[in-house]
Amino acid sequence: MSIGTFDSSNLDAGQKVAVKYFSVAIVLFVAQILFGLLAGIQFIAPDFLYNVLDFNVNRMVHINAMIVWMLFGFIGSVYWLVEDESGVPLVGAKLANLNFWIFTTAVVVVVLVYLFVQVGPGTQSSIWLINEGREYIEAPRWADIGIVVCMLIFFYNVAATFMKGKWSGISGVLVLDLVALAGLYLAGMFFTANISMDQYWWWWVIHLWVEATWEVLVGCIMAWGLMKTLGARRKIVTTWLYIEVALMFGSGILGLGHHYFWIGTPEYWFTIGGFFSALEPIPLVAMVVHAVYDSGVHRFRNGNHPALAWLIAHAFGNFFGAGVWGFMHTLPQINLYTHGTQWTASHGHLAFFGAYATIIIAVMYLAVQKWRGGVWMSGDMPGNGWKWKWSFALLNIGVVGMTVALLIAGYEQSFIERALEGSTWAGYFAGQTQPWFIQGMEWRMLFGWVTAAGIVLLVWDLATIGRGETRTAINPAVSGEPATAAA
Amino acid sequence: MSTTPWWASEDLWRKWAIWITAFMLVILIFLTFDSVAKITAGSDRVPGYDVINKRIYYTFNAERNMEEPVIGGDAPLFGKMYTPEEAEALVTLGKLTTQAKNCMNCHTLLGNGAYYAPDLTKAWLDQGWGAESVREQLMVSFLMDPTANARTYGTGRRMPQLGITEEEARGVVAFLKWMSAIDTNGFPKGFKPIQQEAMP
């Protein structure tokens, strides 16, 4: 056990696996932003990399890197807390490591094929080997099967560890949620010529992941994170978690209907999808109240300032990005004009960042703290903690800036293309060539660079925070003044 | 804790979480059976693949207060009438091609995808093709060489060379024709189709 340096003897077996997942997650996070920048440039300069690395490839890598880094972040987070929460060592540490290497190798192969093969002939073999061409789940079928196998191994490891150790409310919800998360992926693993049927089941994966099972998963991580950073009481966080599950699944499962307005599905989805998706922000309000209330009760006294800041950013980002930005265009009367415009891109940017990127970064800060031997990460850090504060500010300002720029472009697009021009291709392009649309794209680019600066600082900070630190962290569970004694 | 009011009890909310989730799932499964039946190819809302042999109109339905596709008389595609099996095979080739060429990461289909290029839901009926009589060939030529036949409408955005063969291009056109006949509840809003002759 040593302090101030990365020493894996500071970690339990699950956490040793977790830091591997986090490392790959960060690399993919950087890739997400890099390919987002390339795609953003192409909106402004369409000849950039034309017929070399086209928009469709950059955009695919942009969104796929995001999905996979978040999955890696979630898996890492669960491995991080599993021994702490179950009270016993991870049952299959070697299996978890093997699984990690297989999963990572598969991801590398998939990305290389995306970049260097890009597209194939219109045959089943293209879908099995190159890419499936379905937004977010472009991974070829062989990789789909690999993902399911890896998720099952991960699930076995987590469930078996809890079965050997003790169960809690958090772990119960977590394990049931993982079953649903892995099972739902199967709904996206078939080909049909029928685009309506294709999208019906595609949304089972996309919506029931990001608007249901992922939300519950981060609810579990949040509950555990508030106990760790603030010393919040288990009974309180568990009760909140159940409330969130009831509200989240109560609104989110039928909220799926807001994707069924225009894909050929019957008109009753207008009512069901509109009503239940309009309720979806409620659990997110509950999460904000919960996080802020707990922080206030504990007077923000906590052992890891960056982690708590990112947890609070998660609570607000989730509420605004997923909740408010989603609600703004979820009713069919509005969605008829906004569906398939930059509105969706605006919502997507703030929601994925606010709901998921933030909380994974929070757990990463908890991870580096312990990896360095449980170092001090409260106030009075060297340099006043400028790196974490600046990366926090740049990433949040960057994403919010992109969100607002895309929203303005989206408003403009809905008005010109849909309301005025009658949704033709000429109408689409009339919208795309409006100066205000173009300005929106330019502002988005600028804030994209701000976001990129933020990730550079974040990576630097995660690699260096706590280095050479000799003080140990405050234990938030113990009341009284912060301990400042040297280790 | 004895001071916890009944409405804040952990036990109560655990039960609520379980029952609400189960109830919503049952409703979703029930609705899924209904919706899947209504969007199976050959239903009222999603026509069979041999609709590619028919003229597809787009008219305003005052009762529903939305535009909807109407299937007209015979209108052979590429001068040919397809059997239901041939039609399905051609649309399947087209759909496979749209996936293998990753169309959805620039375009939207039924409004889903990326926003770099126009929506393809009603591409078959778009005014951009000029006249009904020439659009098939224009579409095939465009798909096979999008650089030479670029249609950028002043944006400078060109579709990349995707190595689409003539057979694949015909499949894509068939797929787009079939997709334009899906009843999308009036999406995209107020769509103004290519000039149509009166319904026979």
Task: Write up this protein.
The complex is a heterodimer of chains A (487) and B (200). Chain A is an all-alpha fold and 487 residues long. Chain A has a domain at 9-166. Chain A has helices at residues 13-44, 55-86, 93-116, 124-129, 141-164, 169-185, 195-230, 234-255, 268-279, 281-297, 305-328, 332-338, 342-371, 386-420, 425-432, 435-464. Chain A is globular. The two termini of chain A are 12 Å apart. Chain B folds into two domains: 9-38; 49-180, Cytochrome Bc1 Complex, Chain D, domain 2. Chain B has helices spanning 10-38, 84-100, 132-144, 166-180, and strands at residues 54-61, 66-74, 108-109, 112-113. In chain B, strands 1-2 form a two-stranded antiparallel ribbon. Chain B has a two-stranded antiparallel sheet with strand order 3-4. The mean pLDDT of chain B is 94. The chains are: A mainly alpha (487), B alpha+beta (200).
Blueprint (SSEs and pairs):
The complex is a heterodimer of chains A (487) and B (200).
Chain A: H1 13-44, H2 55-86, H3 93-116, H4 124-129, H5 141-164, H6 169-185, H7 195-230, H8 234-255, H9 268-279, H10 281-297, H11 305-328, H12 332-338, H13 342-371, H14 386-420, H15 425-432, H16 435-464
Helix pairs in contact in A: 1-2, 1-3, 1-16, 2-3, 2-5, 2-7, 2-13, 3-5, 5-6, 6-7, 7-8, 7-10, 7-11, 7-13, 8-9, 8-10, 10-11, 11-13, 11-14, 13-14, 14-15, 14-16
Chain B: H1 10-38, E1 54-61, E2 66-74, H2 84-100, E3 108-109, E4 112-113, H3 132-144, H4 166-180
Antiparallel strand pairs in B: 1-2, 3-4
Keywords:
heterodimer, A: 487 residues, mainly alpha, globular, disordered C terminus, B: 200 residues, alpha+beta, Cytochrome Bc1 Complex, Chain D, domain 2, two-stranded antiparallel ribbon, 4 helices, 4 strands, 37% helix, 10% strand
